Amino acid sequence: MARVDPKAVLEGRIPGRPSIGLIAGLTVSSLCALAVLGMYAWFGRMDFVVALLLALLPIPLLVALVLALDRMEPEPPRAVALAFLWGAGVAVLGALVLNTAGMIYLTVPIFGETTGHFVSATVGAPLIEESLKGAVLFGLLWFRRTEIDGFADGLIYAAMVGLGFAMMENITYYMRALEEGGADRLTAVFVLRGVVAPLSHPLFTSMLGLGVAWAATHRHGRVAAPLLGLAAAMVLHGLWNGSTAFGGAGLLVVYALDFCLLVVLVLIVLVERRGTVQRIGRYLPLYESTGLVTPQDVQMLGRLSSRRAARRWAREVGGPAAARAMGDYQLAATELALLHKRAERGTADPAWLAHRRDALLGLMALARQAFLHAPLHGPAGPPWAGGNPSGFHRPGP
Predict the structure, then answer these.
(1) N or C: which end of the chain has fewer CB within 10 A?
(2) Same domain, yes or no, for 140 and 227?
(3) What is the pLDDT of residues 158-176, one digit of tens each?
(4) How many helices (H) and strands (E) does the chain have?
(5) Residue 73: what are its φ and ψ, rounded to 5°?
(6) Running DSSP on this structure, what letter comes out for residue 197?
(7) Whole domain around residue 172: which residue ranges?
(8) Is residue 253 part of a domain?
């Protein structure tokens, strides 16, 4: 029997090595990020070291918060890493070149020194930076459309691009603060950018993330939705940059706007997660005849807490391999429910849908075998079944 690669099945890709496109994207993004860091280090010297450490400090927490939104159906780590590195590398390097060129050859010659910098910040920078950040999202939509199952996926990728970009941009702000005002100025800027408003760039780009997600999961608006999302990202970015002209009141307004936007995005993710749970309850019972699921298994799949408990039980009775098998089973079941969502909306080729369905059912069956035929320890039935039928009932030790 051919060996099955669970990650390849879950990600909907051909088993084996990463694609050339992915390798090229990661390589180019990393080289661009290294070029930017090298330039910062050359001009910043010791200020660069301090700025780099401060820019990196909140990143693990922010990444964890973003990924926490996507626990039911996590995105492929390679694609998430590409999004982050694209924001930190290609987008930042491109923005440095184009923003500088725009000020030198366009805005300053036309509007003068002061007004030219303001126009560049409120109009030029949002147009350039959001386009560069959004390029990777358009690439995912074009090459990996089937990986984007809903708004949460689009938001995850957009947020990772924004976090990468913000991290690199913050280095310049911290270096400038040290040069202009020393430790006191640096503290103020760090509190503003690293503590109070660390999610500004992810929030801007999230508008495009919503548009890309709509295009990937709906038959209508496939062109208009991403373009509207990109325009919204540019407007939000421009409002943020332009708010400084209105002093504290302007900053307060944009902070309030961004906070409200953050709340709305979290609500969108929660509502979509509830929809996924409803689809699990609606479609998974169709496969009871295969023996892969029972009503009790469907209930287990519908809650994150019960999923965790199931993986914990699997680890207790079968070790790490059984826990991985349970995780594969749960993710495959979720992907199966989301596959029916695409079938509902007619956004995928019927032949692809059938092939994808069979692959996911095959992975669920393979994961189930780890419990039916392996020498496990513990009760014959899983705790969530409560003595009722379950696809994971097995012989005793």
Answers:
(1) N
(2) yes
(3) 999 999 999 999 999 999 9
(4) 16, 0
(5) -145, 75
(6) S
(7) 20-278
(8) yes
